[in-house]
Amino acid sequence: MSLFSELARRSVVQVGLAYIVIGWVIAQVAEFAFENFGAPEWVLKSFVVVLLLGLPIALFFAWTFEITPDGIKRDSKIENPSPNPSVRRRLDHAIIAALLIAVAFLMWERAPKEQIVNPDGNEQVAVSEERETTGAAEQEPPAAGSISAVPKSIAVLPFIDLSGIEDQEWFADGLTEEILNALARTPDLLVAARTSSFPFKGSTKGVKEIASSLGVAHVLEGSVRRSDAQLRVTAQLVRASDGFQLWSQTYDREPDDVIAIQEAIALEIATALETAMDPEALQRMLSAGTDSVPAYNAYLAGLAANANLISTGDIYSFQRGRENFEKAIALDPEFALAYQSLADFWRIQLQGTNIVATGLGMDRESLSREFDDAIESAIKYERDPVTQLQYRAIQATQQKRYPLALRLNTQFLEQRPNNKRAHQTQLDLLADLSEDEALIEAIANFEERDGYDPLVNNLSLTYLMTSDDKEYIREFTRLALERNGDESFVQYQAHRILLWVGDIDGASRLLNLISSASLPDDARFMAALRQACAEGNTPDAVRYQKRLLQVDPDNLSMLYISNMVLGQEKTAYEVLAPLDNEARLYELTDYLGYTYFDARRFPNLLAFLQSQGVDPRDPKRIPYQCNADEVRELVSVNS
Fold it and tell me: Which of 29, 353, 375, 563 has the fewest CB atoms within 10 Å around its CB?
């Protein structure tokens, strides 16, 4: 008898096939169960090894023993052995049943998932490490403020930290933002900004409702489980219209593979959404820009710290961001993204009108040197020529080379039309150039693209005073507060613009929130001063200016603005007069964005602007300004 015939007679082939199919089903069920019970990775691996070791044992028993009407006997002790049809039929039935179970399991696993939220609604629970959507996804999304979605658009929701002691939230948030930043570099893919999607962190809203609010057609969500020895990242791309899962992947790697994982996720998403870029070009574009995992982790920590600033107003988190970017650069001296983020820090320190600029006790020359070193290194080490174009625009903007900066930034936006940072730069440049009509149009476009981003609303509200349409301003502010009413800086800017259009009661309600926010003291006192003037309470306004100057008596920006609000315009411009010279002229240009700033009062500034073809705007009067005579009388009495 041939070997094959003997194997068939003893049902060895059927036993082996049945064992493999049934073992696979058992392994899949075990993986599902172990993950949801939080079992360590080694438990599942050990279980699979035991299943594999069982195969040769099963084959050995099938070869050695035979099932007979008299029970199980060694094959060598059976006289006239022959195939047992009943045993073979039972094996065939077992194989068919196992195959049906396997097919059913595969269909269930690939079906669109739903988000499961625990009863108290505070903690999201992941199934198979993937976040899911509940029946809330079937609710009708709110009509107010919604933005129509374009097909190639996506929001990246903050990844959930599933680490044992939940101490990796900073890592999950930073990884999410860098995936988002990588996707934002794809020209024909509209990506909701981090500050648009992160307010939905921990939300019980479904994917469909979130996508409708953000004006996107797709949502990426996932989870992170990270330890010293293991990194698991799960991501899934969901089509918002029907909840269908277009792509999902679980990465089980060592922590040192985090850069590859981030790049792989961004590439897979861009490919799944069929962007116009070819895979090789996408791979280059989506690169993290460093091969050093410690440097990358420090960079992610810096991003997370910076993001905390806009939501809490905590300027010290901004300092922590700087420290992490410097750490990233020390670990990888050619990390362009870290240099650019550090340059941003120094750029803000140079803005005397920015309420988070502390100057760190450094003179302007030293701050400028720090910025120049950082941005020049970013330009030098940046591998992507288009991104390098953006860095050059930032550099030219800081150097007040307005026509060059606008040209470079416009060229960059033509190739990366969805870059939020470039749109911000565009608003700054148009404001400084007194291009008010173009500025209002740019604000509207910016808001339409990313109206749920606090940074977008914050900057747009800052420049909205250039519009003469009060109804438009009111509606714009209403939507901004509807979307980002919990953000301290948005509250601060909205308070000022509401006073500008005469909504004193609405501004008063915001002042109560601002007073208890984590904003710097001078910002809170300035808001109170504005409110007092708007209400005609001149004594309180003067008292708030006194408290303001006690906080920082050398802050020229606060001196200028507070005197302008108090109606002491002559004093206000005398404060800035020492800046109108070649050495400090760049400091004076920081005030060009203020609608009520009159550049024509400064001969050297005016000559500088005219040399670049800039015709300064006619200044507007502050509508909530205090009565100048009453202020002078009170100041005189108090003196």
Answer: 29
Lookup: tokens for 181? 């930043």
**C-alpha span between 587 and 50 (Å, rounded):** 72
In order, the DSSP letters of 126-164 are -BTTB----GGGGSPPP-TT----EEEEEEEPPPEE-ST
Instruction: Give the pairing type, strands 231-239 and 244-253.
Output: antiparallel
Q: Would you say residue 442 has pLDDT above 90?
A: yes
C-alpha angle 235-238-239 in degrees, rounded to nearest 5 = 160
**Long-range CB contacts (< 8 A, 24+ apart) of 361-365?**
364/584, 364/586, 364/587
User: Do 290 and 299 contact (CB within 8 A), yes or no?
Assistant: yes
DSSP code at position 157: P
197-215 residue pLDDT tens: 777 777 778 888 888 877 7
SS3 track for 257-285: HHHHHHHHHHHHHHHHCCCCCCHHHHHHH
Q: Give the span between the Cα atoms of 123 and 116, in whole angstroms.
A: 10
Q: Identify the sign of the CA torsion 555, 560, 566, 568.
A: positive
Is the Cα torsion angle 144, 149, 153, 154 positive or negative in sign? positive
Number of other residues whose CB lies within 10 A of the CB of residue 573: 17
What tokens does 95 get? 């194989």
Q: What pairs with residue 154 in β-bridges?
A: 191, 218
Q: Please report the pLDDT score of residue 131 as a whole number.
A: 34
Select from 518, 516, 506 the least CA-distant residue to 480.
Answer: 506
Query: 639: buried, middle or exposed (CB in 10 Å: 19+, 13-18, 0-12)?
Result: exposed
Which residues partner with 73 through β-bridges? 66
Sign of CA dihedral 175, 180, 183, 187: negative
The count of other CB atoms within 10 Å of the CB of residue 188 is 14
Q: Which residues pair with 23 in a beta bridge?
A: none
The residue to which tokens 């330890």 are assigned = 227
Q: How far apart are CA 202 and CA 413, in angstroms?
A: 33
Tokens of 73: 């006997």
Enter the pTM of the model.
0.63
* Tokens representing residue 475 in the block: 């509606």
- Give the dihedral sign, CA 550/554/558/564: positive
Q: pLDDT tens digits, residue range 115-147?
A: 323 323 333 333 333 333 333 333 333 333 334
- What pLDDT, on the 0 to 100 scale, is given for residue 308? 65
| pLDDT of the residue at 342 | 94
